[in-house]
Each structure stands twice: as C-alpha cells, then as structure tokens.
Amino acid sequence: MHNETKRGGNLPQLWQGAIPLLVLFVGLFLAVMNFGDEATGGPVQIVLMCAGLVAGIVGLSNGLTWSTLEKAVSEFSSMVIIPIMLLFSIGGLIGVWLASGVIPTLIVFGSEILHPSIFYAAVLVLCSVVAMSSGSAWTTAGTIGVALMGISQASDLSLPITAGAIISGVYFGDKLSPLSDTTNLASGMAGAELFVHVRYMLWTTVPAFLIALVVFLFLSLRAGQHVDTAQLALLTGTLSSNFTISWALLLPMAILIGLAIARVPPLMAIVISIIVGVVFGLAFQRGDQASLPQLIVDYWRTAATGYEAHTGVADADELLSRGGMASMMTTVWLILSAMFFSGMMERTGCLQRILNSLLGLMRKDRSIFFGVGATALFGNIVAADQYLSIVLSTRMYADEVHSRGFRPEMLSRTAEDFGTVTSPLVPWNTCGAFMAATLGVGTLTYLPFCIFNIASPLVACIYIGSGIALRRREVSPAPDLISG
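and the corresponding structure tokens:
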C-alpha cells in the first residue's frame, strides 16, 4: 500500500512529486515579477494549469490513465461549487447594497464615528465583532469591509493597511465564532467538542489579536496626522446628495447578521439579503425615477453586472462603481485553475507522497504539531482552499495525536492557527482570491499588513516549541478489582 495511491496507480517517488511544485513556484515567481498585482488576472491561472498538467504527466508515468485524472479533477472541483455560488452572490449583494444606499449609509455614518487617529484599530475591532456575530469572514468583508475601504479611500488613508486590518478582524471573528463553518469543521474533523475547541483557541488567538491591535493603533496614530478631511467631507456630501441616508438602511445589515445567528445557510442568507436590499432601495432611493417594473429590472442588472455611479464627482464614482456577479469571474477562473492543479496533485499521489515524507520527520511528541501546521500551510498553497487545508491537517494527524496522548483540541486549534488564518495570504487560494476581488487590493499588496494572520501561526509556534498550553488527555485510573 505504501507504493500505491489509494485508488490505483503507483505512488510517485518524492522527487517526482516535487516536480509540479517546482514548476508552480518558479512560474508564480515569474508571474509576480512580470505582472505584479495583475498576476492573478490571468498569468497565475496559466501557471496553475501548467503545473497541473505536469502533475498529470507524473501520474501517467506511474500507471494512471488520463480519463481517470479528468474524473478526479471533476470530483475535486465539485467541492468549490457552493463557495463559487457564494462568491457570485456576494458580488451581487455588493452591487445591490450600493444602489440601494445601504453601503453609502454605512460609509457616511462610519466616517462620522471612526476618527482617523484610531481608524485602523477601530476597523480591526469592528470587523472582529461583526464576523464573530455572523460567523463569516467573507460576508463581513463583502459588506462592512467594502464600506470601510470607501472611508479609507475618501480619507486618503492607506488602502493596503485598511485591507489588512479588515482581513485581520474578520478572520479573528470567524475563527472564534461558534457559527463559523471552519470552526465547526476543525473541531468535528479532530473529534473535539466545539466550545472546548473555542476555549483552547483563546490561548493563541488572543495574543495574536493584541499584537495586531497594538500595531494598528500605532499605524492609526501616524496616519491620523495626514488625513485629507476636505476630501472626506466632499465624499460624504456627495453621498448625502445622491442617496437617501437613513438609520433605517442599517436594517439590512442587522437582518443579515440575524440570519447568520439563526444558522441560515450562508448562500441562502446572502440571497435573502439581496432581496431585502432591493426592497429597501425601492423604498428609500426611488425618488422621481422610472416606473417600479423598470427599477426592478435595474436592480436585476445591478446584481448581475454591478452598480455604476453617476454622481458627477470622479472619486465618488470610482468608489461606488463596483460589485455585481460578473465582477467575480476572474476570481472564479483563478479558483477553478487552482482546483485543477490540486486535483491532479491529489489523484496522482504527489500530494500523498510529500505529506508522507513530512510525517516521517515528526519524531518528538511536540513536533507532531509543527507537522500539523506545516500541512495546513501546505494545504492552503497546494490545495488552494482553507477547508481542504483543515481536512488534510486534521485527518492526517488525528491518530498520531491521539496515540501520543494529546487532547483533540490541540489538533483542531493548530489546524486553525495555521490553516484558517493563512488562507487569505495565498493569492490563488479561494480566500485570497475573494479578499483581493472584494476589497480591490492585491493579495501580495495587503499581505504585509494582515498582522493577525501573520502573528497567529507565529504565536502558535512559540506555544508548540515551549509546550505551553499543549494539553494531554486525562487518563482515568484503572478500576479496583473487587473479589467475589
């Protein structure tokens, strides 16, 4: 069995399994060097497809047929159908909420509340609270996050730093929320009790969050001295003159959070929120415009292709003209290309061979958790999806963690410390692609400012290396034998 893949064909040698990875990393380096932030607009997709073909050639040389590989890629890609539909839906939500005045209202009220001297830190905290309430990093970034990017742009603050604060906040909240799909997945795969898993995550997550908070406070104090208040006033004035701004328009956001708390499936919650946005738009932004049927058609078009602003102020038009399901097409192309590569790596046994070699290096008790972390990171890079990263790192090490006497929460926590939070740092990962498309900042541009996402695995490494908070299972003493 050690020389065969799980579904036939010979397991490739380690050097063979490494060839597609070498092609991937060299290709990505060249893509970034030549295209910069535009690399994910097509060049990276081509690299992923070429690396996938190389993996396929490795599989053919080890006894697999091309039809077998194609079938495996189709099965592998089917796992991202729901995330892709969610991606399209959030694109539609952004467009509709812009047209209906929901996001403009968030921008106007947010600019009044969020002082520039604490802006980045406030963004971190606000996104953390909303994401913890909703259990979704994507939904929070696609709603509150878009509004905060608007405030940042209008205030002439750094968009990469703002994006980093948003991503840090939404992943902190998502990671600790009992409503989060990743939190439930990690605990379930490791055999851990959900709330015990969340409690143990506090050990590593809170210090990483505090590090991020201090950094963003420092950056806020420096940035607050250079804010363009005139430009911000122009934007808020433009929004107020082109939209009806009302506290009532915060209700769609409250409804969305309520749907999440009620455990309504994310895709259904987003679609309902789009409909709610249309209703509120018809109620508050109708004015003297076209007939009701025409307005409904306009919102339909907006959900499909995005909102196009005509305020007469160039900066405001640039800020507001975005969203729509069509805006996510390049991101979907990136995700499908990544799934092609990942499916080939998995079915040919290249991934299995590399991970087996990694497991063989884990000799000491605590070193097993370095292996979990490395596998989670590897999963985000190669499998290009945080769910697959969590599944790989928990499923592969579950028996070993149990045999070495550690609590299952140590496994689930480590998978999240390295898997959940690093997913938006990989440009071709589903999360990295989504954040770049939604926030309008390239992954490699915002990456240095995702302080929480960087600090989380580093803090986890300190805990693993020192043995802090690595709890073992309690072994019940053998019962006394009572003679008859």
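(Above: one complete record from the training split.) The CA atoms of residues 92 and 218 lie 36 Å apart.
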